[in-house]
Amino acid sequence: MRLILLGPPGAGKGTQAERLVNEYGIKQLSTGEMLRAAVAAKTPVGLKVASILEKGELVSDEIVCAIISDRVDEPDCENGFILDGFPRTIAQAEALDKLLEEKKLTLDGVVEIRVDEGILLGRIERRASESVDGPRADDNAEALKKRLAVYSAQTAPLVDYYAKTGLLKTVDGMQDIDGVFASIKQALED
Ligand code: ADP
Predict the structure, then answer these.
(1) Candidates 3.40.50.720, 3.40.50.300, 2.40.160.210, 3.30.460.80; CATH matching 2-189
(2) Scanning 1, 14, 68, 72, which has its CA 20 to 30 A from the CA of 35?
(3) pLDDT, tens digit, for every residue of 125-165?
(4) DSSP state of 122
(5) CA of 70 relative to ligand 1 center, distance in Å
(6) Cβ < 6 Å from ligand 1: which residues?
């Protein structure tokens, strides 16, 4: 099974991705996590993107597309994958269509976790304060507002993009974690 998870920062994509991994035996590919790992390891890509991540801006399409293209070729993705945090722009979605076609792979669904925007700041602030590793470099008020604005401007249009393909499944992200997961499973198995 090959899925995309769509939703603003704080919607619960990471939490639900983890459950989907266990349920379907597929791999979670989070571009945010991969980029943070590159920053921590000070790889050439990491050095290039560190300040972009910190500000809550988007890394270039070229970099994230290359990362994803290489990653889906790994043997652990054979059963499928969940893309979490990618694509984030229409250009990335188009690039993904192209690279999947080249690899002769298809998507099974795009799950949009829909939440009321008003709750997001609070959720992310709570995540930052509860994180055992300390807050992420971009979990501060300024970067957060930037990430939410970037989401509305650049990523939200993907909802329409995937609605047109018939792949879009929208679930209510305002339920508790189990409720959201049950809705996702139901949407995927319909
Ligand atoms: P969020 O909680 O904001 O959804 P992520 O962990 O998905 O956070 O991403 C953190 C940061 O990594 C983003 O703000 C951005 O700088 C960078 N990033 C992640 N995925 C992408 C992408 N597909 N395109 C461009 N930048 C990305």
Answers:
(1) 3.40.50.300
(2) 1
(3) 888 888 888 788 888 888 888 999 999 999 999 999 999 99
(4) H
(5) 18
(6) 9, 31-32, 35, 52-53, 56-59, 64, 85-86, 88, 92, 138, 147
